[in-house]
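Quick check before the chapter quiz. The format below is the same one you will see on the exam, so make sure you can read both the input and the output lines.
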Amino acid sequence: MSEKVLLLERKDKVAILTLNRPATLNALNTELQDSIIEACQELRNDDSVWAVIMTGAGRAFSSGADVRGQRQEGGEVPPRQERLDAYGWVGRLSTAIYKTLDKPVIAAVNGVTAGAGMSVALACDMRIGSEKARFKVVFPERSLSPDTGMSYYLPRIVGYSRACDLIFTSRYVEAEEAFRIGLLDRLVPSENLMDEALKVADQIVSLPPMATQAGRRVLQQSMELNFDEQLRNEYYHLIIARRAPHDMQEQRDSFLEKRPPRFTGK
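Here is the expected output.
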């Protein structure tokens, strides 16, 4: 039996997704793409999971699309809905992480992160990396323009001109520079990478999940709305965040009783 290309581990309220094709630097073949999309839907529907960490096995986060492991033209005809899908696999994969999952997602960047693999890391809400983290756009070298959402994420994370620099040159960005320009939010020694990612995840899941998920949505939508629209959007999500009567009461009770809160998501 072949080993799973995507590993799913649960630690209390945190799910850990590990891209598990280390021999190919976790290149995204069709099986791994489909597995990530399915896992995102599964975790979205799992109320026991409040935050997610995504990382790679071995010495890479992901080297990008595996051109040897993609569906080939002239092979088996894919389902009709797949052929009608204007997003393609690149859009479906990006949407699964950024939208479908609908919970805070932390990328623990342990090594090479390139092409569509870089896009996957950018689709996560935060990136924690070690000194071994290296980013590379790659697409122009393959006579391609950016995909898997990179053209959306990258200028919003590092700014337009820096995104141009990284895309037009396809140069390597080492860990220190990645941290300086915002590709990484935290930079830690490699031996502490998962501990730090879990520490951040534990901080997230110590808070009411309705509040963090509503906050994630309102932050994402803020990038598309003007000031007045965003104020209305904030108020709408404030109402959603309050749809957890136990947690609303618990935050008051724990404050008055001077004890740690015990949130349930209900």
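If your answer matched, good. The mean pLDDT is 93.
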